[in-house]
Amino acid sequence: xxxxxxxxxxxxxxxxxxxxxxxxxxxxxxxxxxxxxxxxxxxxxxxxxxxxxxxxxxxxxxxxxxxxxxxxxxxxxxxxxxxxxxxxxxxxxxxxxxxxxxxxxxxxxxxxxxxxxxxxxxxxxxxxxxxxxxxxxxxxxxxxxxxxxxxxxxxxxxxxxxxxxxxxxxxxxxxxxxxxxxxxxxxxxxxxxxxxxxxxxxxxxxxxxxxxxxxxxxxxxxxxxxxxxxxxxxxxxxxxxxxxxxxxxxxxxxxxxxxxxxxxxxxxxxxxxxxxxxxxxxxxxxxxxxxxxxxxxxxxxxxxxxxxxxxxxxxxxxxxxxxxxxxxxxxxxxxxxxxxxxxxxxxxxxxxxxxxxxxxxxxxxxxxxxxxxxxxxxxxxxxxxxxxxxxxxxxxxxxxxxxxxxxxxxxxxxxxxxxxxxxxxxxxxxxxxxxxxxxxxxxxxxxxxxx
Length: 451
Ligand code: UD1
Ligand code: CA
What we know:
8 helices, single chain, UDP N-Acetylglucosamine Acyltransferase, domain 1, Spore Coat Polysaccharide Biosynthesis Protein SpsA, Chain A, binds calcium ion
């Protein structure tokens, strides 16, 4: 079978979103609305896959990167959008799937069902329909006395009888491409002056060509997002599906109602996601890890058997068996070594901790590197910023930083060194050396001082 081409219509204004951001770029579960549609089209092997842009075109095209796009300006309706889109579809293709950028739950299987129904029946059009409890706003499918599709009538043009029809047009179709090219210029303008793609149904019937219907069983999968109420409802359904899929793969999600997991997150079996937790972006959670309650983890790796309790983790790595929180903030570039413990109002930024580091109480480590088994006393702070530049702090393995140590960067504290409580360290500390005071100075340690 030759390739099925795809066209995604995304030029409309999306007025009801009342948004500066083009509608199709609104995120759902960590991915732009249109990227969900494009993922389904790609999974159904539509090739090429072309997007019709228009309103907010610069922004949409930037977000789409290298994907083929064609601009529709002005936006004169869905048939006009398809006509412009056709200029980018190769002559070799025989089937064209048309869908819209605002149906993020559209499954790849529905697209495949449409293309096989169209080809199987040699139909001019296969269209995806669904029975909607509340059909208002949608184009209604009007059938003749034998039950064959006669037309799709838009809400604006529907009389009272047609408005009672609950079988609606989802807006996704597969066309016989040769026929589509031959007829697209014949679509008449509607009363509003727009060119309706749905008028092709009547034109096909008039020409004696078949129009077949594929019925989606779940209305949600074809729900077009027009406002932010629908955006939230569809996102909630999407998140519920994502969570259920993880649960089936062996992840415990204690309370799906208070958990959010983005579409690209990966979680290994036997991880446990506690209530009130958000796993966002490209986060990966290892086997046996426990995240939450009350954690927000974005674009981060959580190692196997680690714990992240009531903490905020952004673009960071948490090692195997590490303990984070409660109340820790790991910022970009933090790498927490295996079995390390960071919690109780601790902040870490662009800092690497070795294995078994303990940073238990209100402290800040920025632009630093700590070796294995370093003890970070309560209130320890890296003074990493001199007013214009950030500087690095290096602390050797086994060092003991006393309570309330200030480390003025750039600074190196040697392996096994000790700083006294309240010390302000402004000079490098040699391995094994003990410094105390403000500014900190070495004290001799000998048998008499170490009772
Ligand atoms: C459309 C269908 C309707 C169907 C409904 C399903 C038509 C005429 N009507 O109505 O039968 O029930 O979808 O949700 O097609 N677009 C363009 N260029 C334009 C106009 C629209 O690219 O000039 C794009 C929009 O960005 C959107 C899609 O086409 O992604 C649908 O447009 P919209 O105005 O939302 O159509 P509906 O009124 O929802
Ligand atoms: Ca719509």
